[in-house]
Amino acid sequence: MKEKIRFQDVKLVYHTARGETVATEGLSFSVNEGEFVAIIGPSGCGKTTLLSLAAGLLSPSEGSVTRDGSVGYMLQRDELFPWRTIEKNLLLPLEVKRALTPEAKERTRALAEKYGLKGFLSSYPAQLSGGMRQRAALIRTLAGEPDLLLLDEPFSALDYQTRLNVARDVAGIIRREGKTALLITHDISEAISLADRVIVLTSRPARVAHIHTLDFGEEKDPLRRREKAQFSGWFELLWKELNG
Length: 244
Description:
By secondary structure, the protein is of the alpha/beta class. The protein has 8 helices and 9 strands.
């Protein structure tokens, strides 16, 4: 399968007035086209740093990060501008890239209509629920037509029930659009319910401890996965790997 991103023996060293901090060392993995991969690890191990490397915001001290195509980044909060309508928020990436053509506008509006935002394009972010705002944030990211989506705990700011529904919604959109996704999460259940594979990191300096291919067959619905018999087994295994 075609790789969309590969980390090869990546070491990242932060230099501060107090000295050096090794964030990652010997970090190697890849994500294939159309795959949904989740990364979990102990608190403070550098999961968000990994996404910064993936996005090209940081460069490795050693090793390499190779990407095939463009990258879209979805943050923990929606970061919609409150003074812009939802439509103008969705079009912002195209404005920044100076790619706001009539065709791009139409494509973005079609995405908004397809995924339930048609009636909210003239609204402002404060008028939408948290879940609708995250949906808008995803469509804004998709408007730039990225080849790889980087998801930095995008559901963590939501309450539990909303989080389950929005995660299902967002994952469904990503899969229907045929996108490749790399998700950072601290929630084991979320990783199991959403991903094709789960990568477990060690404590800092982060390395790959384990890579698991989940055995849910064709079942991609996150809520239905949680009902499967093997779900609890995966949870117990990943819990032990993180806390053992």
